[in-house]
Give the backbone structure.
Amino acid sequence: MNLILLGPPGTGKGTQAKTLAKRLGIIHVASGDLFREAMSNGSELGKRARKYMDRGDLVPDEITIEMLLERIDQPDADAGVIFDGFPRTLQQAQALDKALAERGRSIKAALHMTTPDEEIVRRLSGRWLCTNCGAIFHEETKPPQEAKVCDNCGHALAQREDDKPDVVRHRLETQRPPAEMLDYYRERGTLLEVDGAKESDQVTKDLMAAIESVTASLAN
Ligand code: AMP
């Protein structure tokens, strides 16, 4: 089972993708996490990506596609992948389909999560991440018990550079899923719309229902 979560940055794709991956027994591949790992390892890929990421711009397709294709060739991706943050352009969507087809696989559903911009700015500018285990907190909706300390592992929490309100607004302008990419999935009958502004557990339920509708129709 290969799935895609689409949506503007900050619509909750990361949180939902982690939950869905656990429930479905597939892996969660987040392009932003792969870039951040590459930057913290000091790799060549990380150096090439950094200048785009710090500005809140998209990393060029050729760099992004190469990184993602390497990831899906690792053995843990055989059972299936939920892609989060990738594809973000039509070219990336086409490259992913081609690569999956060459491996006898395909995208079963492209789940598009929608959320109003003002809600996204509120969510992202209050977001704190654990520098060790990746747990996500929010100043208003999910504060840690002790300020700037992870409830799970006790490590320090940090805000992402690109979660500052100005950069968030720029990311929203430049990183909304482009209409041509949404049309691409719509034409293939794999695009499913889910309201990402609802409460998180309800969004999970809606996403699971959408996935089940696709798998049921495939079984018939
Ligand atoms: P994210 O964690 O998904 O918000 O991604 C963080 C940053 O990584 C983005 O602002 C982009 O600079 C870069 N990035 C992540 N995924 C992609 C992608 N599919 N295409 C291009 N750039 C990406």
In short: Residues 9, 31-32, 35, 52-53, 56-59, 64, 85-88, 92, 162, 171 surround adenosine monophosphate (CB under 6 Å). The chain has a mean pLDDT of 92. Strands lie at 2-6, 27-30, 81-84, 107-114, 127-130, 136-138, 157-158, 191-195.
